[in-house]
Please model this.
Amino acid sequence: MSFKITPSHLLSYHFCPRFIWFMYVLAIPEYEEQRFKVQKGKEIHENRQKHNPDYLWKKLEVVRRYGPVALQVSKEHLSGVPDDIVELDDGSLAPVDYKWAVYPEFVYPGHRMQIGAYGLLIEEIYQRPVHRGFIFYIRDGSRVMEVKISKWLKEKVRESTERIVSIIQGEDIPDVTGRKIRCLDCVYRNICVL
Ligand code: SF4
Model:
């Protein structure tokens, strides 16, 4: 297989499996606004780093920061670059992701999968325990949510990755999402056969 599955694939897949087909099989260009949000999140993070390098880290029991690191494991077909990898005072490592979004009531399943994918990558590459990850929501300030990276979550990441690979390789169109409200926000709504 010549391509790798990234946390962005997982986010798209959990929005709607058919989205993967439009984006990676038909290669219809991805969602520009989403790309802008990711970029904006990084810019804001860099700005904050300059003015307040210790914000929230002590509260999260972070003892060391490694910064963004490109990660890839061939066994899982997974790759990705978390915004940061941190070491916690219990010796475990944790991925950090920044979202240009307002603080939600709960962590969205796609975001949970993304942080789980980073956790899986870190655990396999560094051979160190990963029990949790952090998502910073920075659109309305900087607030953090902790995500437990459980065995269950890692298994879900593996299952989703396999399914994405089969959609891309098989080139068969997945069913439409059962959650029709998502179609209202979908960039492919005008060309998707509903
Ligand atoms: S329009 Fe709806 S079913 Fe089609 S890809 Fe988008 S979310 Fe999925």
The two ends are 31 Å apart (CA to CA). The first strand starts at residue 62 and ends at 65. The beta strands are 62-65, 71-73, 78-80, 84-88, 93-99, 132-137, 143-148. The domain at 32-160 is CATH 3.40.1350 (Trna Endonuclease; Chain: A, domain 1).
